[in-house]
Protein 1
Amino acid sequence: MCAASSLPEPITADPPGGVSHPLLTQSWLDLAFIHWAVDPEDVKPLLPAGAVPDTLDGVTYVGLVAFRMHRVGWFRLPGLPYLGTFPETNVRLYSVDEHGRRGVVFRSLDASRLVPVLIARAGFRLPYLWSRMTIRTDGDVVSYTSSRRWPGPRGAHSRIAVRTGERIERPTELEHFLTARWGMHSTFFGRLRYLPNVHPRWPLHRATLLHCDQTLTAAAGLTGELGDPVSVLYSPGVPVRFSRPARPADISTP
């Protein structure tokens, strides 16, 4: 695996650029961000060739992010109300490539709509998985459940409940590091690609983790003991636009 040859781009709360001709549009709503600190050496083998763990003060993180995907749409077409709207829970790692571009790498993306799962797997080579999922709100408590159906491991699950708190007026550097990610790294046809996105600055809230029973991180390859989360956040959400993949890193997989 190659090391990044450029310094990582700055951590910024606002997107570094715009998207004039979006490839995809969508909204992410009712998000719970749960993060654990991990050793960069433990996650390095889980990243695609050409990306290395992105770190803050020598530490990297694994995130479990549960939310409601809302009205996924292509180009400038209106988002789909049924097929484009569904619960999702992803396991993600933090990455940086040889051009210094910070992003995330998705180890798994559980979603409750089979057709979007099939499209994402076939068209984007993303590790989407079909699951039974619910999101329920009771006052200031939001609960998320997920049980995997296909392709597996069948029964991998998460049951999460958070109590939302006050708005964070001045997020810390760590909170920006974990949430302000302006692209994703993934391997497409043997090459590392970077898919940029833009959205408004996150409206973040403190959150208390009331319950977390999950096997998704272990199913994603993080088999060590994670301990207690170091960060639990909630956001009502943002609208998002993805642009076409940026220039691929000049690295091929073995």
Note: The chain has one domain: 24-242.
Protein 2
Amino acid sequence: MTSPTEATAGGKPALVEARGVGKFYGNVPALTDVSTAVRAGRVTCVLGDNGAGKSTLIKILSGVHRHDRGELLVDGAAVSFSGPREALDAGIATVHQDLAMVPLMPIWRNFFLGSELSRGRGPLRRLDVAAMRATTRAELLRMGIDLRDVDQPVGTLSGGERQSVAIARAVHLGARVLILDEPTAALGVRQAGVVLRYVARARELGLGVVFITHNPHHAYPVGDRFLLLSRGRSLGEYGREEIDRAELTRLMAGGSELDELAHELDRG
């Protein structure tokens, strides 16, 4: 297992780095001494079961909650976000499971929801629908997403397609770090593959990606580094060259605890 952060590899600071980060709710520790770094053109997979601390880490990185201990750095400078807007301004975008999309609205409208383009001034100001349609189509194609019609309601898309639209939207709006919260959790094998393809595409475009998941079979194909959490603590961070899929799955499933359980259940 290598150093947890590799913060200055290549002479450049990480886009985002957590150093010994901790978070408490009252006297209850939700996260204790967790470190990781997110680098440009790399996918950091954060794995853990329910209650492992993944959601808490997301909230700290995305500015929803402030950390109580340790340091959070952006481009090597310590920060303490007062809200999600500050994280967005720093180029950190989060795509949540619910996607914050309006099913009955067309794809282009969802793509620009809250950031609509307009033309004209004063009482003559109007939404620039043509520009938003053209931009949506072009940005989706840049991500390798070829949808039939950007005027179709977003609710008619598959789960994987909706996730890909959300990823493309974050990239277009200037994200340098893309946090994906369990994007494949509710998807079948084929649709999960669609999302993983666009995670890889975001990496190719130079983004730093944080891929939150409880599924090592989804993480391993796209991951460059793997941070394992359990009960709010780090079980270690591994480079892809340091761990194979089988070992990642074993650690994710409980490691020695799973071995002991298998022994107890053995009827041989």
Note: The chain has a mean pLDDT of 87.
Protein 3
Amino acid sequence: MIRSAGPFSSAPHKGEAPRAGLSRRAFLAGSAVSLGALGLAGCASQDGMTLAEAQKLYGPVPDKKFAIPAADVSKVDPKYFRRTVPYETKEAVGTIIVDPANYYVYRIEEDGKATRYGANVGRDGFRWNGEAYVGRKSEWATWTPPREMIKRQPEAAKWAGGMPGGLDNPLGARTLHLYQNGSYTLYTIYATSDPETIGSGITSGCVGLLTQDMIDLYDKTPVKTKVIVLPA
């Protein structure tokens, strides 16, 4: 059972083209307060990845709809760069495990290993834990603010009919929609183009990965994949 304090919706509705207004991060955070750049990246990460290697890994990505720009890895603590790590578990290969306390998402691999991605997670009052599964996958998904967010941020009401997919859409290039017992939970694992949010609690309960990491996870994850969100 998912325990939660507030959803982040992406129901598939059509809407008008994006206009200038609320910032992407304000949508995610549910407030107008923006984060400053962390500027935490050094010459090399703890596992030996140099900044040049990270820039290559998180470089621009061609896409059928929108050209995805490189992530500014200088704003990401190197410990959140993608890497393969030891991870002992009885869960099946492919299972996704979210560790919100440490801002990581794991995809279970063979031989006691996992691919680990840095993440942003729900802020205080919006965190949840439990088991779900990927019920739907979307590329450049339409984002619809839930009623609770519109109450907190009336300016989001203009997207009540849905914000079309695009570079400014909060759900980004790829989205895994989480379900329980055939019903959409309103929670997602999504692509963020805001690297400074990785390693922070900023969303209304959803989990964000750098776009390049999200594409990597998305491509490996079929519908019905089990997702476990650990307690924070």
Note: Residues 1-46 have pLDDT under 50 and may be disordered.
